[in-house]
Amino acid sequence: MAKYMLLIYGNEQRWETMSAAESAEIDAGHVAFVNRAGVRILASGQLEPSSTATTLRGTGTGTGDEPAVTDGPFLETKEVLGGFYLLEAADLDEVVALSRELAEVRHDHSGVEITPLVHHG
Amino acid sequence: MTGSENPTAHGGADADTSDVGAAVAAAHRAHWAPVLAATVRVTRDLDIAEECVQDAYTQALRTWPSAGIPEHPGAWLRTVAGNRARDLLRRESVWRRAMPLLVEDDTVPGPQDAAEPPAVADDTLRLIFTCCHPALSREARVALTLRLVCGLSTAEVARAFLVQESTMAARITRAKKKIATARIPYRVPTAADLPERVSTVCDVVHLVFTTGSNAPVGAALIREDLVASAVGLARTLHRLLPVAEPAGLLALLLLIDARRATRTADDGQPILLADQDRSRWDRRLIAEGTDLLTEALRGGPPTRYAVQAAIAAVHAEAPDFEATDWSEIVALYDVLLRLWPSPVVELNRAVAVGMRDGPRAGLIALDDLAAEPALATYRYLSAARADFLRKLKQWPEAITAYEEALVLTDNEPERAFLAARLAEVRRAARS
């Protein structure tokens, strides 16, 4: 078994202005995902809007320097991280198959990124 | 090495060294993929498996001259490579490997000494589907397939795709690392995923073939090693998979490859379809390709490869270029455009329209494509325009079009061909 981080990205403005039907479709996708993934889900969460994010950034001049604390996400992009699942699965195909349950992978502005976690044997 | 290295050899008959060289080369072509695929199941690590299979071939060169060429070279190589792998795995150092083990399903191992154990077909497919996994980039799929399934050296793969050997080595290493780390499984896809996954594999095979049969750059128009690799892969897919797409793909490759001997002149210059000596087309390949096409079209809607093969079959049937059924060709391109919309298909259709309705109509059809950004620097668009303009005796425009095509072409035989046509048109313009 291996651990994978599944990150859900999408256009934040599109998410904020979506219809009730679209919203219901996304919710249904997550219900289906959770039902199918079951105990393979180690953790999960939905993020508040990126306007609520705070970033601490290294200023790059030396070890003794204080980080710069700024308002907003680390990357200022239209597409933002909206949520995540931390999964345990046998292989990549299993995670890809599970991910197909999510409505986000069918909308033109969103998608999911699957990355394996470093295995500390 | 363990003692049982020579399980199926003829009893010690001395073999001629050149026979052995030829036998090992033949075994490399025929058995590289299945032997590697079986060894990967022992090692569950692509690099170590490759090393073991390489060792097995080296050992064949060393021992076959005295021990004789085995009756079943594939089984011999599989056994030697498998023994080598088990030896290596016993050594502790290998367990401190950097990469995780490949994920595979539990399967009952096939008998080790039979000529074609049932697991062999499955192993080869596992290797192919792993190399062509959609989670790898298209260029990584092609590189891995040529290196691991076709057994080309990294230098050969690098040469085919015009990159430095070190760049290609890094690309292959990165892809193997992703397979191991992201746990791309060493497995034949489930029935539900099979059609899509087979399409990805067919795409890789087709790309290898087109790269080989129209080398974009270089001294030769046709890279025979790539063409042979692609045809071999398509044959394997067709033999092992019960779906229609590989039949259409193999039909297409054979029908195109049937023309190989007539596509270049003795000096290496390309000969256009119109000018090829059709009596030298390989009728055996055409017959096989036509049968496969019938099989590919039976049941279910046609795949794009089947339609392309049907176009090639219409050419194969025509006694000469003018007598080609151009209406049928245009109709088939219309079907192909629906299945596989692409500017290059539009270009081919426009050329066929020109053949059906005359060069003037062809030129009009080509002009419709001039605004297509994907074709703006496409060498065959300029070349096709030049050819119609030449037929219409519009010399100044033809000269410009040939000059344009020359600027866009890096393949040396094609350049020589275009330069000769340009000279011919310039002569005509002066007289």
Automatic annotation (TrEMBL), chain A:
<feature type="domain" description="YCII-related">
    <location>
        <begin position="3"/>
        <end position="115"/>
    </location>
</feature>
<comment type="similarity">
    <text>Belongs to the YciI family.</text>
</comment>
<dbReference type="Pfam" id="PF03795">
    <property type="entry name" value="YCII"/>
</dbReference>
<feature type="region of interest" description="Disordered">
    <location>
        <begin position="50"/>
        <end position="71"/>
    </location>
</feature>
<dbReference type="InterPro" id="IPR005545">
    <property type="entry name" value="YCII"/>
</dbReference>
<protein>
    <recommendedName>
        <fullName>YCII-related domain-containing protein</fullName>
    </recommendedName>
</protein>
<dbReference type="InterPro" id="IPR011008">
    <property type="entry name" value="Dimeric_a/b-barrel"/>
</dbReference>
Automatic annotation (TrEMBL), chain B:
<keyword id="KW-0805">Transcription regulation</keyword>
<dbReference type="InterPro" id="IPR013324">
    <property type="entry name" value="RNA_pol_sigma_r3/r4-like"/>
</dbReference>
<dbReference type="Pfam" id="PF20239">
    <property type="entry name" value="DUF6596"/>
</dbReference>
<protein>
    <submittedName>
        <fullName>Sigma-70 family RNA polymerase sigma factor</fullName>
    </submittedName>
</protein>
<feature type="domain" description="RNA polymerase sigma-70 region 2">
    <location>
        <begin position="34"/>
        <end position="93"/>
    </location>
</feature>
<keyword id="KW-0731">Sigma factor</keyword>
<dbReference type="Pfam" id="PF04542">
    <property type="entry name" value="Sigma70_r2"/>
</dbReference>
<dbReference type="InterPro" id="IPR014284">
    <property type="entry name" value="RNA_pol_sigma-70_dom"/>
</dbReference>
<dbReference type="InterPro" id="IPR007627">
    <property type="entry name" value="RNA_pol_sigma70_r2"/>
</dbReference>
<dbReference type="Pfam" id="PF08281">
    <property type="entry name" value="Sigma70_r4_2"/>
</dbReference>
<dbReference type="InterPro" id="IPR046531">
    <property type="entry name" value="DUF6596"/>
</dbReference>
<dbReference type="InterPro" id="IPR013249">
    <property type="entry name" value="RNA_pol_sigma70_r4_t2"/>
</dbReference>
<comment type="similarity">
    <text>Belongs to the sigma-70 factor family. ECF subfamily.</text>
</comment>
<feature type="domain" description="DUF6596">
    <location>
        <begin position="197"/>
        <end position="296"/>
    </location>
</feature>
<feature type="domain" description="RNA polymerase sigma factor 70 region 4 type 2">
    <location>
        <begin position="128"/>
        <end position="179"/>
    </location>
</feature>
<dbReference type="InterPro" id="IPR013325">
    <property type="entry name" value="RNA_pol_sigma_r2"/>
</dbReference>
<dbReference type="InterPro" id="IPR036388">
    <property type="entry name" value="WH-like_DNA-bd_sf"/>
</dbReference>
<keyword id="KW-0804">Transcription</keyword>
